[in-house]
Amino acid sequence: MASSSQQLALALAWMFAVPTLVLLAGFAPVGRGRLARFASPRDLTVTVTSGPVLITYLARVSRWRAVGGAAGWVAGGALALPGAYYFWGAAGYLVGALAAEIRTSVRLTPPDGPRRASLAVRRSGDYLSWGVRWGPVFVISAVALQLAGYLRWPSAGTLDVQPSEVLLGGTGVAVVTAVLWLSRWLIVRRPRPVLPDDLNAVDDEIRASSLQTIGGASLALMCLAAGDVMWDVTLDLDAPEPFNWIHSVLAFGVFAMALYAWFGVRVRARRLLRETTE
Predict the structure, then answer these.
(1) Of 22, 67, 78, 221, which is most buried with the most CB atoms under 10 A?
(2) Cα–Cα distance measured from residue 254 to residue 261, given in angstroms and rounded to the nearest whole number
C-alpha cells in the first residue's frame, strides 16, 4: 500500500514539477541579458525604437509557448494519452508557438503619413537554417525506406506491426508537416508597412526566430512520431545483413535527429543579409 502511494506521489510530482518550472521560466521578465542573448548572435543593433518591440515579442512568445508546453505535458499524463509526457509537452509547445503567431508576434507601427506597404520579396529559405528546410525530407525518406524493407522482409513472413499504428504515426507526420509548411507561408507573407531600417531589421529577425522555433519543434515532433513506428518495424524486421543494420541505424538516426531538432535547430539564430533603405 505504501509503495503504491509513493509511486502515485512520484507520478504526480513528475506530472506537475516540469510544467511548473516551464511556466516560471516562460513568465520571467525580459531583462537586458535576455535581450542581448537574442540580439548578439544575430548581429542586431537594439535601438530606442526597436528595444521595446523586441521586449514585447520575447515576453509574448515565451508565455504562449510555456503555457502550451505545460498544458500539453499535464494533459498527456492526466488523460493517459498514448505516448510519453515529453511528446505531448512538445506538441503543446508547438500549439502555443502557433497561437502567439496567430496573434501576430509584434504590431509594428508605421510612420506618420500615407500608409505604404513594403514590396520587398521575402522567401522562407532566407529565414530558415538548413536543418529546418531539409530535415522533413530526411524523415519522410527514412520512413519510406523502413516500410519498404519491412514489406520485403517481415519477421517470420508475417506483418506483426499493426496498420493502425502505422496510420497513426503517418497521420502525425502528415499533420506536423502541414503545420510546418503553413506556418512558413503565413509568417513569411505577413504584411509589413514601410518602416525605418532598425524596425525592418527587428521584423526580419522576429520572423526568422519564429520560423526557426516552429520549424525545430515541428521537426522534433515529426521525428518522434516517425521514430516510434520505425522502432517497432526494426524490432519485427527479418532482413539480411547489412540491410538489418541499415534499418537499425535509420531508426536511431531519426531519434537522434529529434534531440538535435529540439536542442539545436529550434534555438539556432540565423543571420540574415539585410537591405537598407535609402
Answers:
(1) 221
(2) 10
